[in-house]
Automatic annotation (TrEMBL), chains A, B, C, D, E, F:
It is found in: Peroxisome. It comes from Claviceps africana. GO terms for biological process: fatty acid beta-oxidation. This is Uncharacterized protein. Keywords: Acetylation, Fatty acid metabolism, Isomerase, Lipid metabolism, Peroxisome. GO terms for cellular component: mitochondrion; peroxisome. PANTHER family: DELTA(3,5)-DELTA(2,4)-DIENOYL-COA ISOMERASE, MITOCHONDRIAL, ENOYL-COA HYDRATASE. The keyword Acetylation applies. GO terms for molecular function: delta(3,5)-delta(2,4)-dienoyl-CoA isomerase activity. Pathway: Lipid metabolism; fatty acid beta-oxidation. It comes from the Eukaryota. Pfam families: ECH_1. Belongs to the enoyl-CoA hydratase/isomerase family.
Length: 280, 280, 280, 280, 280, 280
């Protein structure tokens, strides 16, 4: 399936699997390397989501990996992500800070993307796979997914977001610390039980289909409502209740002036009339 | 059953179902409209909880809806909650901010109420039902409850508290975003599994009874201990651990001077002697 | 089993149950009093964890209680933890603030300890047992454990950390408020279901063994990775995502300069070679 | 001068000294008691500012005291502001918390008032005078003003806002702590030098006139711009720069849709044409 | 004077006025329009500082405007900064949020720039001039500078940073609100007295010379020390003291491993030996 | 003058210069080394203030240096404050973090000390002198004091508190960054003008005398009021206004129950009767 116009990348495949539904399917596309991330991959990853965020023709996004073997095996350690550099420890630290910061920025673009993102985890989903999944809004997994916060096993603390986000995403810190400190594998079923993913399906295909169905449903709703809901939930997670209520009232003071509320209300009372909502 | 003296409202029924136990039962009382909220309803709702909060004769509260059909169907959209107004977008925004703020304030009175509040969800519990339930301390549900964060379906992002509070109330953000973005129904059982409610009972009656039993138990304990526990848990939720520990030590530096500790200790060692605690 | 050299305490037993594995086993050692805490006990408790934190020979810690009857029954109320004092309410309050603060500090040493701490709950685990468990990184429980946030029953709001930490540790605030306001018992199984503990085993022995196995696994990994992971997860819990990402990049800018990454990578590609990591 | 219609109070005089300018002059009106505050006074004080905040006919406010002798001498200690009550220390504390909270709320209404407030300090301006002045946007003082954070001299820490706000209002914490800990008098000139006030005039009349002139100028500008500026400065004071920038962009995304920008721009290019702005 | 290699811009002139000193002079270069900012200008402005931040050959920066007439007259209102767009208010709001956010990002690049930035205010310095100056580390002004937070006069609240930053930059909020609400002009002398600028010189030339001298001095010091100091001061401004101390210890745990400390110490004891520091 | 009983230190001299006034004078006592700080000195420094904080016989503190030549010349760089250690950069970083943290803790004890601390700066007051002065409540300086944030000149960013606290202590960030980035000397007069100190006196003796007079005045007031004022001002500096108001009401709910308010009020109305206040 050809890439959406304007989305030509080497390591990212962006398609329109349900034409007319305003859903984009973003796939990590380096199957020969188990979809591992070199620097080139993460720069493209950031670029895709920056673009999607501003593309009024896309209203919901599904993310998965190309192929049957992996969502992603994580960082491509063969590609020299470590800044060799010379100079003393402080000078090497500056280089590393810059490199980590750039990597974090690219992955965070998925969280900042103003459209809902549904992440499909499948097969090998290690290390960076979890960092990425933490930036999605909704996570689904195929039954056979092999998940792990693997970083401790290569001698480092995960630095692309898992440790910053996982404690806010899953309710049990005992479980969070168990998997982060031990680097042990956990199954899709375990991920479901602790709430890391919210659905498990039999295989990758079925999971992708479930994700696309969900994306289509969301994309059919008012984008003012959907994008506002995403923004306000993210704000609520990181701020006190009082601050979040105030922000909500400022945000909605203009959102409620959209044509979407009367359009949606009309369809509530005439359920056979599907509302249409202008692009946003 | 007659309203408690001093609690005369048009849309709120406040009774004393277990005389002598210091438990108030607050019921949304507009069954002909599925307990939907017009502005008059939410003003009364705020007023009830402001009063309960300062009423030393009430030590715990149960909230439910009158009738079998609904806890509440949400906002009464026929009652013009939208500020029509004229003027440009900024001037309409000011009106909307004021209206949303007033509504938030009224619902938040339940969270600010210094007495524990147990919310019984039953039958139709849509939209605003979730905003309200998020302000309760403990949530129970009847088996047949029909729950949904419905706002997206009427073209808006929920603005009376669900998006500010739900991410802090339930452990799985994947589930939170699923139900908030899709506006889909979820059952009492699903609510139990993700931890949104902590008990499910067979029908409304049994759930109300379980809630009243729980309220009676709590109301029988030291109000200094109970109200302090509520305050400190809310503080802990919205502040760093270090700040919460400090606040706790300041709070308890006077609470521990109450007569309640010796009274409670005495009964621990003589279990047949039920302690009595002064009003607070 | 003799105490580790340098760890001689009256109420704390610190042993090395798996020699060569860098795992310390800290046991509350006052079985005749159900491991209840007097002031002398909590001062020693703080002291142990301050020492462990800086001891490069210890890489992971397991905590439990001596004997079959209790992890701990909580505060030893017979030992006058209440500051009697004279003077007016404000002067007594200063004394109480100081005493609570000291107690909080001692218990918090376990949270601040830079090594992962695995807490084994068993038998009677009331009140303070929960405050302590909240400071651990990972919680396991024996099947027959009797758990309760008991403080309300002795007329006070828990002030040594449960109310500050539990809302951030367990995903369901409805459950948190239920157990904190009602002071009711809950079982190991219930604790598992809500995510307070992450494993339940048949009896105390099996649970301790599971905890030691877990500790040995963690202690065999890079201490730079493990201690950094603990630090960054704690930081992520108490700070916004943006702040946590920034802190992570600063932290890892030097951690990545350790010899541990190449050592760990080498072993990834030669799985039969177990990496060794220098002390930290 | 008669009170503005709708502003009938016993202890507050609200006039319209510059008809047609949309400026309200609020005066504390209890000169026989040096404008000291009993509970009745502070309840009215809160009520005035709540009303002004929502009154589209008022665009700027000047606050001063009636008479030559005092802005205010502070709390009317003869009026039993201390909650006598009986019960133990914890129960008296609850009463006091309620009373302090109510008092703080009333004074804070001036800060929350959406219109700019200019405070004229003159003659005796002790204790509560500073709490009140801290809630104003701009402070002017007459030359002979006698200022002091007097609370320490009556045995208490100021609790109506001075200690919460002064460190954020004046640049020198050394000076702030000096005047708060010593309760010493300071002059208008000293207040000017440290930046607590921004203008000093020869006497009360001249200061009031300067304040009214300033209020008239501000009231002539776009209320969308003026009220937004007040809101965003307050937000900037209490939040990180990143959060404040984000909030600003959301706020202005609707404010910029007002008719005020084109109206103001038109007058910039035709300076003889005074723009008029719709009420807000 | 020719632009530094690699710094070719249409509206920004970047020179090396003190060769060998590692000081860059960035000048806003649109004198025919009083250095007013169109979108093209602010995009270049952001680009310059992003580049400078990562350029190890630049250790300190001076910013001023080309020509004698203006630092900058602010936004070029003739260049359609308002997003006309169609659609309802919510859709126009999304466009405006995006535009404001982009503008804020570009100006904030100066604050984020890891090298110290000294801003020279001179002649017309209105509106955006203050937003920009607030992002500098140190502000100097020529005697004749005409300063104003002008936005209110064109019907809007300043949204590119002044309102978010000024309350944290200048000690007197009374003064801050005076100039922001009234949009009145203030002089270099007044700016000096309130601490907005820290030096005033006779004319633009002398001020630029003073700024360059200061930049040369700073650029001669250890860049590890200088850039760390900037980072930690910014962090200290936006965070609690406890958090800032912790961040400082993590930051310096690697910075102190630089060769700069011994190099600097050597020169302290042999004052005739000027230390040299490696690039950073 | 002999040390106060119980205050025997090698490098700290603690005296009682105004017997009966409850004022302690703490002097850094290593004049032969210009009062420079080795590790032994800072450990004692922390110990003194921890003790003073809990000593009910001390109600206010003055800090200065022994001798005419220096308050302190800063860190004793000859005493190996740098952790040499071996191991890789990450392991050295852990040692440095520990060392910096310990040093910060010791200096911060002065800020945490519950009694007001007045710092007298005189003669050489470099580097650490500013870190220490930032922890005092009130700062005075002798005319000839030579002040500088000197750390940049020895190749490091100040890490014992100056960068975390100075931006909150002085109103002009332009000045703060100037002195921190340039490491230049500034005079007592300049310190006065920017508000870093609040009084300048002719020489050390006169400054100490002024500080002692101020301390005696403060020590004569209600310690409940004075210590509460210090606590609440510190809280106000680091928290939002809303949080600070809430904390204030909880704090004062018990403080107002002290006997100090009636005692102080009695003396207000009978000015010849000096109130006495119980120890705290």
């Amino acid at each position: 399936m050809a890439s959406l116009p304007g989305y030509d990348y080497e390591f990212m495949l962006v398609t329109d699997p349900r034409p007319g539904s305003a859903v984009a399917h973003v796939q990590i596309n380096r199957p020969g390397k188990l979809n591992a991330f070199s620097r080139a991959v993460w720069l493209e990853f950031g670029s895709v989501f920056r673009r999607v965020s501003g593309d009024a023709d896309v209203r919901a996004v599904v993310v998965s990996g190309v192929g049957e073997r992996a969502f992603t095996a994580g960082l491509d350690v063969g590609e020299g992500f470590v800044v060799e550099g010379d100079g003393d420890a402080a000078r090497r630290a500056k280089g590393l800070r810059g490199r980590i910061g750039e990597f974090q920025e690219c992955v965070s673009e998925m969280e900042r993307c103003e459209k809902p993102v549904i992440c499909v985890l499948h097969a090998i989903s290690l290390g960076l796979a979890i960092d990425i999944a933490c930036c999605a809004d909704i996570r689904l997994a195929a039954k056979d997914t092999r998940l792990a916060v693997k970083e401790v096993d290569i001698g480092l603390a995960a630095d692309v977001g898992t440790l910053a986000r996982l404690p806010k995403i899953v309710g049990s810190t005992s479980w969070v610390k168990d998997v982060c400190l031990s680097a042990r594998d956990f199954s899709a079923q375990e991920a479901l039980e602790v709430g890391f993913v919210s659905q498990v399906h039999d295989d990758k295909d079925k999971t992708v289909r479930a994700a696309l169905d969900m994306a289509v449903r969301i994309a059919g709703k008012s984008p003012v409502a959907v994008q506002g809901t995403k923004e306000l939930l993210n704000y609520g997670r990181d701020n006190s209740t009082a601050a979040a209520l105030r922000y909500t009232s400022v945000w909605n003071s203009v959102a409620l002036q959209a044509a979407d509320v009367p359009a949606a209300l009309a369809s509530v009372f005439s359920p056979d009339r599907k509302p249409t909502f202008e692009k946003l």
